[in-house]
Amino acid sequence: MTDFHGPLAAFDRALSIARAPDAPFDALLDLARATVGVKLFTFMTADMATQTARRSYTSHPQDYPVSGTKPITYNRWFETVHTRRECFVANTLADIATVFPDYELIGRLGCGSVINLPVVLGDTPVGTVNMLHEEQHYTPERVSLASNWLSVPAKAAYLARRALQAAG
């Protein structure tokens, strides 16, 4: 079982001293790396009123830049993450290809598994934490850790970022 005490304390410390808008997600990335493991990490916001999603944070800005919006696609991923508000998990590149059109880039980056953790506030999905790693990396234990231990820190990072942007 992964020990969350040290990584969670480091996340709390980083969040409490954050001054730049990316700092809360930098801290969440570090927490995810230390607990469930990630090669590629992004945060997508969702605006259900306009039916658009936007990448607002990325660990790989050259491959996955923070810019623009894309329309929300209604598929099994949407049903899992937005409707049921559960983690979407795919552990092979072939499975990823069934829902993500950028699967070839994902594969070139050495990734073949994904966990998309929904972030829900006020009974509204506001975004997803997207964690990718090599094929078969996200075992049932890691998925459980992500859904049970990263949900509250993800909400905290999202809200801290909004506060820092507003203070900006």
TrEMBL record:
Gene3D superfamilies: 3.30.450.40. InterPro entries: GAF, GAF-like_dom_sf. Residues 25-146 form the GAF domain. Transmembrane segments: none annotated. This is GAF domain-containing protein. It comes from Roseibium salinum. The lineage of its organism: Bacteria, Pseudomonadati, Pseudomonadota, Alphaproteobacteria, Hyphomicrobiales.
